[in-house]
Design goal:
By secondary structure, the chain is an alpha/beta fold. The chain is built from 8 helices and 7 strands; from the N terminus they run E-H-E-H-E-H-E-H-E-H-E-H-H-H-E. Helix 1 crosses helix 8 and helix 4 packs parallel to helix 5. The longest helix is centred in the middle third of the chain and has 28 residues.
Length: 261
């Protein structure tokens, strides 16, 4: 359901100092590889030991659901890179797929901590370094769930709507310091996470995974998933000089998603 391989954006980011949460696998790894290919210097975190073991970029283990880990990661990134120009808040989980009355308090708390609060903790710690650099960029990963209602995904949707509000508020606070803050709202990104969500929703609806996949793709006018590279390309654009006057925006990269189920 993806219309061909995507070409990485090519832009000169030589010397740019970039920290990415959950940057050893999935979308984060594609973003890290893409920034590195453009000349940026990287430091990434991840909670997954297997992903970290195969990560070629400087890294540390950190749990985005733990505030102290978020702060330790940013401090380590600044120390390793000698400063900071870009923070990419990429860490997130899918959260539970269930009716609201069936969601446990523990599942709600975990989703909000990892998908929303982690961005607050990382940004809070990174702001002094970004100011010291004379400006920079914070890129927060929201979701199409941050502009639509997502039945059976209420904790995730609530967190991603929160990311948009946080992004807009922070952009106003940091604009005078030359720090741009934007959110990327991916649509259904082809990969293990969306496949797991589709499987869970198919089971809840009593239909096959193939049928649920078709229904998901049908929510977009391009009748397509998006790719991890699509998301990485937008992050590169926003961090680059091309995005010099873009701030406070919630930018959808979603194959023109029109509705949700």
């Amino acid at each position: 359901m993806v219309t061909g391989a995507r070409v990485p954006l090519t832009v000169d980011l030589t010397g740019m100092r970039v920290a990415i949460t959950a940057g050893a696998g999935g979308i984060g790894r594609v973003m890290a590889d893409s920034f590195a290919a453009c000349g940026a210097e990287l430091f990434v975190s991840d909670v997954d030991a297997a992903s970290l073991a195969g990560c070629p970029h400087p890294h540390m283990r950190a749990d985005a659901g733990v505030a102290a880990d978020c702060e330790a990661f940013v401090d380590a990134a600044v120390a390793h890179l000698g400063g900071l120009d870009v923070l990419v808040n990429n860490a997130g989980i899918a959260g539970p797929t269930a009716l609201v009355e069936e969601v446990t308090p523990e599942a709600l708390d975990a989703t909000l901590r990892i998908d929303l609060a982690s961005m607050f903790h990382c940004a809070r710690r990174a702001i002094p370094a970004l100011r010291a650099a004379g400006g920079g960029a914070i890129i927060n990963l929201s979701s199409a769930a941050g502009r639509f209602g997502f039945p059976l995904r209420a904790p995730y949707s609530a967190a991603k709507w929160g990311v948009v509000g946080f992004t807009k508020s922070l952009s106003i606070e940091l604009g005078p310091d030359g720090v741009r803050v934007n959110a990327i709202l991916p649509g259904p990104v082809d990969g293990p996470r969306i496949r797991a969500v589709i499987a869970a929703k198919a089971k809840a609806a009593g239909i096959s995974e193939n049928e649920m996949t078709e229904r998901t793709v049908a929510t977009t006018s391009l009748r397509s998933f998006v790719t991890q590279q699509d998301i990485a390309n937008m992050a590169l654009y926003l961090a680059s000089p091309f995005g010099a006057t873009i701030s406070g925006q919630a930018i959808a990269v979603d194959a023109d998603m029109q509705y949700t189920m």
